Amino acid sequence: MIMLEKRPQPSRGWIFATPVVAVLMTMFFGALLFAALGQDPLVTIRTIFLDPLFSEFAWFYRPQLLIKGAPLVLIAIGLSFGFRAGIWNIGAEGQYIVGAICGAAVGLAFYPMESFIIFPLMIIAGAIGGLMWAMIPGVLRVRFGTNEILVSLMLVYVAEQLLASMALGALRNPDGMGFPGSRNLSQYDSAANLEIIAGSGMHWGVVTAFIAVILAYIALSRHIFGFNVRLSGQSPRAARFAGVNPGKLILICMGISGALAGLAGLFEVAGPAGQISIDFNVGYGFTAIIVAFLGRLHPVGILLAGGLMALTYIGGEIAQSNLGLPIAAIQILQGMLLFFLLAVDVLTNYRIKFGRERTA
Amino acid sequence: MTEPLLRLSGLTKAYPGVVANKDVSFNIGRGEVHALLGENGAGKSTLVKTIYGLVKPDAGTMTLEGQPFQPPEPRAARAAGVAMVFQHFSLFDAMNVAENIALGMENPPPQAEIAAQVRNVSDQYGLPLDPDRVVGELSAGERQRVEIIRCLLQDPKLLIMDEPTSVLTPQEVDILFETLRQLRAEGTAILYISHKLEEIRALCDNATVLRLGEVVGECDPRQTSARDMAELMVGSTLHVPEKADKPAGDVVLSLNGLSAKAPHQFGTALRDITLDVRKGEVLGIGGVAGNGQDELVAALSGEMKTNKAMITYKGQNIAHLPPNARRKIGLLAAPEERMGHAAAPDMSLTENAILTAMTREKLTSNGFLHWAKARNFAQEVIAAFDVRTPGPQNAARSLSGGNLQKFVIGREIMQTPEVLVVNQPTWGVDASAAAAIRQALLDLAEKGSAVIVISQDLDELMEISDSFAALNEGRLSAPRPAKGLTVEEIGLMLGGAHDMEVAHVEG
User: Fold this and answer.
1) How far is B392 from chain A (nearest CA, A)?
2) Do the interacting molecules here have an ipTM over 0.95?
3) How many angstroms separate the CA atoms of A277 and B17, rounded?
């Protein structure tokens, strides 16, 4: 009989060990999966996890790591506040889309004027767009007690429809000969989110992501706001006793996650993606949920997890093109990561005991 | 009736440090509604758990219908015809009534059959309940009916009910009493546990009174006055300390007709509480838990908003102030539930010190936390109140209940409040630590702070209070000087018997 026994204190060792164990287990079961698909498991694992960093084409892949990782980290940092406080914003994907639409719209409105003020205005518009989209589930929860998980998730699909309508209608490139999609912002100097150092992958979104990591770290470990967030997640009643206003906290956490997701969307649309198109969003908002948990909702952890997740994206693409691995296999691998993390996580608060069940 | 249904003789059960039952003997006859009376901690729960097979007695025997009765587990007790309705229900919200009932059965018949049985029993005993409804949608009274019907389907000889009316509305109480009377008429014995004297007088044929684990008296509640029963419960040995007469200080805190709706389903509404607390005064508020204690503390701490001008602090209306603003001006509170309310279990003691002390101890500036200062403050509380823990970095949940209680009370006292409200300050704390907490409360009052102590422990209240009031169904009796209060006066204030005469006229 295997039993779980609650530890008197969360194990410090396991807090750090669980992500590592989860990654190793994912590699192992991923290898089994790839073997079942008729691939050489070792080659596949090497292709996904090592080739982006160390192969002869790594000079091409390494900047990609920053480009893919930045939106993941940015969104996950925002989500981590809410997740710590027990507020489940599952709709970052929608906030990402709306942030991109709002930011792009501001940029396109100025076209073809050139001014240094345009890009900052787009950044503000992107953040506000994401924030307002997140306020919908936030206000509904505070005002009417609706479930923010459902509302925020459903709003993703609304945002996708909005995106399609924008790409085909209001924001369509007038010079695009009828093709869907907006003007290419990356070719419009005042609105382009350019690489700060050419060829490095380091664009403004990456810088913002690093700043977000630092600010989040300070807020969570040194500031009363982070304290209240953690307290509310662990003991809502104690938080109320400590003077935390639960409604206000919900709105602030939803606001932070929405604004950061919106920023991520803006940096993507003005840079790597370049334009508003029907298939602009690629699921960063959802993958960021995995990143947030894989990083233990800790800013530094999220930074590392974001890097790892970006690695599987890029490695997955390599495996797809070089080995002919189906994209679904990569998505399973990413899903496994969260699955094993949550499973192994039990060991932080419980220890396994082998023995016979006693009947009292 | 020659042989009683259940005979208890010499039941004794000791836990480390406390004797829960000492030589308890009494009988319950067929068709008898037998009341078990006593204050909290008198040993009622241990006794019924023994009968229900949850606790094994150290000594003593039981017989059921003349046969030796020693249930090793509840299943055996149920098989012998003993059923119990617990104070806290064990039902699954997402399932319907019939499914919940099937879950408690050894060999459940098909759902349709259970549903038919439930309808049958529910008609027969006047307990309206639809077997197809989902439990999550039911009121507390209806949930209790599920538990009762679950018991009745076993056709029990003895039905044990633990504080059945604590969660019911008056109308639901009437329905329940009708059912119990009908069961009695059919020969089912009922062991009825309650603090509410007027209910017991209306329902029960016999009463056994426990105090500190011992049977201190038996009576016929229909013939005995509530006054006499209260005296039996409380005991005439209340230790009333000689307190030096202090000159009355200025009024610091006034409640002016404080009323508030019940914050949730199982809460109690506060009704028109009027009170003045003076500097240097210890006000003891007695009463059985669930009569508005939590709500009163929440109203004073600022967790529960009340209407304008109902709370004045030094002449200033503070009813609208949130918790930290109240702490800032010197009004502090320590709620009853330490895990999850007064303290966050998974956070360290340092973090738990920040929880209430950040304002008064200035543990933040511009919102930034001073960790070293917080750690020092936690360390001071640990040292001053002899909290047994390796250090302030340990999680609150690693402390024993009594130790955490010392930390939680100490955390408030160390902030030198001008008014301190504590709810059950020594609940679950061993005797010497309890004495230390009481002494600290007295010292605080000595220095000029006003202290409001809410407790179920009358000895404690008599030991430290200058004045005494009782909370009953959300109403507070007028405070009276604790000195010179007789046992019977306290008992009457507590039992709520002052409005008993009007309450239960129907038979």
Assistant:
1) 13
2) no
3) 74
